[in-house]
Structures are given as structure tokens and as C-alpha cells.
Prior knowledge:
Helix content: 55-70%
Strand order of the largest sheet: 1-2
Structural class: mainly alpha
Order of helices and strands: EEHHEHHEHHH
Number of domains: 1
Distance between the termini: 48 Å
Largest sheet: 2 strands, antiparallel
Amino acid sequence: xxxxxxxxxxxxxWSAFEHxxxxxxxxxxxxxxxxxxxxxxxxxxxxxxxxTYALAKYEFLQSxxxxxxxxxxxxxxNDIRAAAILTIVFCVFVATLFGxxxxxxxxxxxxxxxxxxxxxKKAIAVWICLGVGAAAIMSTIxxxxxxxxxxxxxxxxxxxxxxxxxxxxxxYRTFPQNIAWVVLLWLALIPTISSTMLMFxxxxxxxxxxxxxxxxxxxxxxxxxxxxxxxE
Length: 232
């Protein structure tokens, strides 16, 4: 089997996904990292999908209003589009970083990584936490306080356009999908921060004690590395 960038692909197998092997207690914070990483990725994915749906609906609304008015009316909803794009980008980063760390831990738990990689990974994790937090704050403000509006036509025509395409509504907070997106994003922030903390904690442990399983580390510390001696 090929070796790519030092990763022996022969160590990859479906048996690694077995519950007994994934959540083996001998590995430091292995179970906790797998559980919290998956929560962060799954909830972030749900927030990303909901934000993508809301973004698509408002883009369709803009196209339909322009088409129905003969391209004289314009829908202004750049604020919610920016919030949705920010949410999508950082939720993708959550899945990318912690998904990669998940699979490295799953298939190559004994591998030692260079210091530059470890520092870069932790710096990116902190940046992602800040990004998800910024997206959550921005999305909350936009959805709770703002609304889209139509320009280029009179008030009566604008009302007729809204009546023709009532979904999604111009008032963001009255669209249930927007509320779900914001709630999911805040929920995703919690395991994202927790995943970053676990990443830091496991990095300190691995740099101090190594990446071997717990019972092997204990044996090495005790000096019991050779075969037992028989008493005469």
C-alpha cells in the first residue's frame, strides 16, 4: 500500500470505525474528541445547510421581483446574504479542520506531528472559533433587527410584488428558517470551542508523554519494557 506524506494507507480500514476501537479508553481524550468533534461538525453542517437555504430563497426572490417588474424593481437584502455567506464559510472550515483531525486520530493515533503543524492547527482552530462567533453575532443582529426592501418602483407596486412572492418575507425574523439558522449556529459554536480546547489539551499531553496508549506509557514510565525475569 502507498505511503503519502508519511501516512501509511495500509493502516486505513473499516474496522477502525468499530465502537470498541474508536472509543478505546487507553488513548488520552480519544472518546471525548470523537464525540465533541462529531457534534461540532454535524451541528455546523445543519447551520450551514439552513443558511444556504435562506440565501437561495432570497436570491430567488430577488430574481423573481426583477423579472415580474420588468427589471425595474430591485430587492435589497445584502445584509442577510453577507451573514449567510459568513456562516457557510466558517461552518465549512469547522468540518474541514475537525474532520481532518478526526480521521488522523482514527487511522493514525500513534503518529507524531512536527511542531509547526501542531501550532498551525491550533491557530486555525482559534481563528475558526472567532469566525463562527462573529457569524453568530452578525446573523443574530441581521435576522432580529433588519429587513429587506424594494426600490425602483412605487409603494403600491412594491406591495403587489410582495403579495405575488410572500415567501420568504421581507422581515427576516418572520421567516422560520432564519430563526433555525441562527439557533443552530449558536449551538454549533459550543462544541466548536470545546473541540478547540480538547485539541489544545491533547497537544500538551502528546508533547509531554507521547502518543502511545495509556498502558504502554505506564509500562515505559515504570521501566518494565523487557520480558519478566525468573527468580532462581
